[in-house]
Amino acid sequence: MKQLWTVFEFELMNFVKAKSFVITTILVAVLLGGATFLPRFIDLSDMLGIESTKKDSDKDDKEQQDEEKEAKKIAIYDESGYFEDLTVLTETFSQAEEEATFEKKDSEADLKKAVENEEVDAGFYVVDDLHYYYYVVNNSFADSNAMVFEQLLSMIHKQAYCAEQGIDFVSFAEGYDAPVEGEVQVLGKDMENSFWYCYALVIVVFMIIVLYGTMIATSVTSEKSNRAIEVLVTSVNADCLLFGKVFAGAVAAIVQVGVIMASALIGYSVNHTYWGDKLDMLLNIPGSVLLTFAVFGIGGFLFYAFLYGAMGALVSKTEDINKTAGSLQMVIMVVYFVVLAQLQNVDGTIMKVCSYLPISSYSAMFVRIGMGKVSMVEVVISAIILYASIFFAGWIGARIYRMGTLRYGNPIKIGKALKELKNVE
Q1: Which residues in 98-193 belong to E strands, given as ranges?
Q2: Whole-angstrom Cα distance, residue 257 to residue 127?
Q3: What would the pLDDT profile of 316-343 be if each residue is shown by its tens digit?
Q4: Taking a C-beta distance cutoff of 8 angstroms, is the pair 282, 196 a contact?
Q5: Whole-angstrom distance, CA of residue 346 vs CA of residue 368
Q6: CB within 8 A of 80, min separation 6: which ones?
Q7: Residue 404, exposed/middle/buried by CB under 10 A (0-12, 13-18, 19+)?
Q8: How far apart, in whole angstroms, are the C-alpha atoms of residue 370 and residue 198?
Q9: Nearest-angstrom CA–CA distance, 222 and 229
Q10: Residue 123: HSE in the Cβ half-sphere, 13 Å Cα cutoff
Q11: What is the DSSP string of 35-69?
Q12: How far is Cα 75 from Cα 204, in angstroms, rounded to an integer?
């Protein structure tokens, strides 16, 4: 136990004292935490779609700027005769917050020529109350002219139809366009709100496993390549070397991710009203999900970290790590994409199976808790399977580590290593 603690302490200090670790942790934590305070100093109301928190003078300045914006020029050629008075067009576009001025053209050719020569921004050729052509030089995503005009033309058609049928249009409109009011009562999980933070947490745990797993494998291989392992194994038990590295990596990952997530979550909890609660879907994570994320995320990391350590012991050069660990990384990638692909079907068979497999339960289970229906019995069974698999992975990893640390030359194939495990004491 003393040897394990010594190795753990040494490896942990190597992680947390590294400049890259310190700089990355502090920089990302400060940036994310600081970003949550932005609405206190910068008016983001337009972007967020909330009431401005700035002073009325700022609001007046914005309104003045809006008034000073040049209105769009739109030409119209109307064969139907519905738009003799252009006031209705101006008022309709103004209500849709699309300020525009209109001018009549005598023919479709004149209309097209005005648009092509950029004398006007766009043009409408009205055939009748159900058909029109919209002319524009370059059509952009933000162009809503056609949509606003269609709504107006549809209203004109309804009025004409009611007149033909002898129907009072006002009564018709009140009944036909009566608003339907409804309120969603969520008795279980609201997937719409939980989708994005579950999506983000899946990415976070994936990055932790790949990043720190590779670092552990590189550390093992580096000790082999510079022959330091020959000295270490004479004074320290090989099992303690691997377990110490893995546990140190786990603690370092918990510290780094914990600091960064705490900075973002605490910062948002303090400033959520300034954000109009718009980021709740990403940063308002329930405690049950965070707890499950910690339990299963740490378990998943330990499971793969032992395997990464074993992969590192099978090669003598750091550049050979990717060759040996390629199959392991492929499994991690497949699990990652499968879980993300099933986020909209968390109660399906695939996710239920994934939540019990140790290779995938580290992400599938907390997703099911956040978005689906899962009982405490299922969570406990999944956790038992995962942590039992960790002990097995640790046992296998330690034996491979012990067998491969003093073997140099070409990378040892994983199949051959597993066959030779029976000869390892």
Answers
A1: 100-104, 122-128, 131-135
A2: 63
A3: 677 777 777 778 889 999 999 999 999 8
A4: yes
A5: 6
A6: 126, 127, 128, 129
A7: buried
A8: 7
A9: 9
A10: 25
A11: HTTHHHHS--HHHHTS---S-HHHHHHHHHHHHHS
A12: 53
CA distance 49 to 269: 19
**In this structure, what are the phi and psi dihedrals at residue 416, rounded to the nearest 5 degrees?**
-65, -40
Q: Give the three-state DSSP class for 416.
A: helix
Would you give per-residue pLDDT tens digits along the chain (425 residues)? 777 888 788 888 888 888 888 999 999 999 989 988 888 888 777 666 666 555 444 545 545 554 445 678 889 998 888 888 888 888 888 887 778 888 988 899 999 999 999 888 899 998 888 889 999 988 877 788 888 888 888 888 888 888 888 888 888 777 877 777 777 666 566 677 788 888 889 999 999 999 888 888 888 777 766 555 555 656 667 678 778 888 888 898 889 988 998 999 999 888 888 888 788 888 888 888 888 889 999 999 999 988 888 887 777 677 777 777 778 889 999 999 999 999 888 888 999 999 999 999 999 998 888 888 888 999 999 999 999 999 998 888 878 777 766 565 556 666 666 666 665 55
Burial of 317 (0-12, 13-18, 19+ CB in 10 A): middle
CA–CA distance, 145 with 155 (Å, rounded to integer): 16
> Which residues, 6 or more positions from 16, have their beta carbon under 8 angstroms from its beta carbon?
22, 252, 255
**DSSP three-state, residue 261:** helix
274 in helix, strand or coil?
Answer: coil
Amino acid at site 282: L
CA distance 220 to 211: 15
DSSP for residue 83: T
Q: What's phi and psi for 44, nearest 5 deg?
A: -105, 15
- Please state, in angstroms and rounded to a whole number, the distance separating the CA atoms of residues 191 and 370: 8
CA gap 68, 20 in Å, rounded: 50
Closest CA to 213 of 188, 186, 183, 245: 245
Please identify which residue in the block is written with the tokens 């399977």: 385
120 CB-side CA count, 13 A: 23
